[in-house]
Amino acid sequence: MSGFDPIALPMILGFAQQVGSRIIDRRTTKANRAAAASQADFQIQQIRRTQEIEEQRRRDRLRQALATQRSRFGGQGISAQGGSAAALLEGLSKSIDSESRNAQSLAGFRIAAINNRLAESRRRNLLEASGARNRLAFDLLRKSIPAVRSLIG
Question: Does residue 72 contact residue 85 with C-beta atoms inside 8 Å?
Fold first, then answer.
């Protein structure tokens, strides 16, 4: 038997077609992963930039509130260095600090959610790719059985 078995030819062509489509699928999956990562990076940068802008607004608001309150105290002849006046000014600062911590915490949760979605997508893609490889191997095995039988029989 030095010749080529004509029964094996369709199986080989089918296998080559499956391999070719798997290569295209893999490239598409890789491009999709890159696009998802890029989108996630963009969203994270957007959250961080928004956080920076909001933090600057909070600081500006605090400076303005402190200046306004000090001016009121000065107009009333009250020193802002001690007693109730100092406590009021400190309370304003603590309020803004608390607001900043809450905003940072919220931004952290949003960023973590984006990263978790991206990681889940990557895991799902890996599972799908592994399933595709297994299907290809089983299809090849299933299609090769008739060719093996023809060689034996």
Answer: no
pLDDT recorded at residue 12: 63
Q: How far is CA 119 from CA 57, 98, 125, in A?
A: 33, 31, 10
Upper half-sphere CA count for residue 51 (Cβ side, 13 Å) = 19
Burial 127-145 (b: 16+ CB within 10 A, else e): eeeeebeeeeeeeeeebee
* Domain range summary for the chain, segments of one domain joined by +: 8-152
CA gap 58, 100 in Å, rounded? 8
Strands in the chain per DSSP E = none
Q: Are 136 and 11 in contact (CB under 8 A)?
A: no
Q: How far apart are CA 153 and CA 144, in angstroms?
A: 14
Label residue 4 exposed, middle or buried (CB < 10 Å: 0-12, 13-18, 19+). exposed
Q: In this predicted model, what pLDDT tens digit does every residue of 66-118 receive, in sequence order?
A: 899 888 888 887 776 777 878 888 888 999 999 999 999 999 999 999 999 99
3-state secondary structure of 77: coil
CA distances from 107 to 38, 50, 100, 103, 114 (A): 19, 9, 10, 6, 11
